[in-house]
């Protein structure tokens, strides 16, 4: 966790915390303060199971929302900053990504690349997949 966040919450944050994903699953994850960087909280117990379950990879991003003192909501995004929607595969119990259309919400990060209050460029994939159908 970022040092500024860790410094503010570590005295009052429960251990373990409960991390809930956008598909409604909750995970109990314990944390420690990192020895080499005493101002950073690191998830440990339960984190490997979470990581492997959601097939996290280098380049994925996660948007955490903290609700004191115990709860985190998290949305997982791919390398293009589009949210990955997970659903149950009833045949084998795995969690493949579901395309983000139909009844699913499409979410993405939009990084402000320049100081231009008149325009915001949306991600290429979103524009390509949904641009023609926007009202």
Automatic annotation (TrEMBL):
<dbReference type="InterPro" id="IPR050655">
    <property type="entry name" value="Plant_B3_domain"/>
</dbReference>
<keyword id="KW-0805">Transcription regulation</keyword>
<keyword id="KW-0804">Transcription</keyword>
<dbReference type="InterPro" id="IPR003340">
    <property type="entry name" value="B3_DNA-bd"/>
</dbReference>
<dbReference type="InterPro" id="IPR015300">
    <property type="entry name" value="DNA-bd_pseudobarrel_sf"/>
</dbReference>
<keyword id="KW-0539">Nucleus</keyword>
<dbReference type="GO" id="GO:0003677">
    <property type="term" value="F:DNA binding"/>
</dbReference>
<dbReference type="GO" id="GO:0005634">
    <property type="term" value="C:nucleus"/>
</dbReference>
<protein>
    <recommendedName>
        <fullName>TF-B3 domain-containing protein</fullName>
    </recommendedName>
</protein>
<keyword id="KW-0238">DNA-binding</keyword>
<feature type="domain" description="TF-B3">
    <location>
        <begin position="1"/>
        <end position="80"/>
    </location>
</feature>
